[in-house]
Design goal:
By secondary structure, the chain is mainly alpha-helical. It has one domain. About 85% of the residues lie in helices and about 0% in strands. Helix 1 runs antiparallel to helix 2, helix 1 crosses helix 3 and helix 2 packs antiparallel against helix 3.
């Protein structure tokens, strides 16, 4: 997986979110509901994993560019990536609202 393309990074982030949401949805339909110590452990572990994954996707390349002294390139990279991710979020919210009608 190459993380040097801002558009691919945004797509990878969206795919990761979709994967996690589908996995949680699938597991919740098959899991027995009830109080369990495993639920908070799993959720906190997933939070840490997600934070690390998203931090790597969103900030690794811009930070390395910034360390190398390319501040304009870093800002351009993160701007294009966040812009692409924003487009996916807007499309997702719009489609959700459209299908709720």
């Amino acid at each position: 997986m190459s993380i040097t393309n801002p558009y691919k990074n945004a797509v990878y982030a969206v795919l990761y979110i979709v994967f996690i949401a589908c996995t949680i949805n699938t597991v919740s339909t098959y899991a027995k509901h009830g109080p369990s110590i495993m639920i908070p452990i799993i959720l906190l572990s997933l939070l840490v994993l997600s934070a690390a994954t998203m931090a790597t996707l969103f900030f690794f390349e811009p930070l390395s560019m910034l360390i190398k002294g390319d501040s304009r390139g870093a800002l351009s990279f993160i701007g294009r990536m966040l812009g692409t991710f924003f487009v996916f979020v807007v499309i997702s919210v719009a489609s959700f609202l459209f299908y709720q009608m």
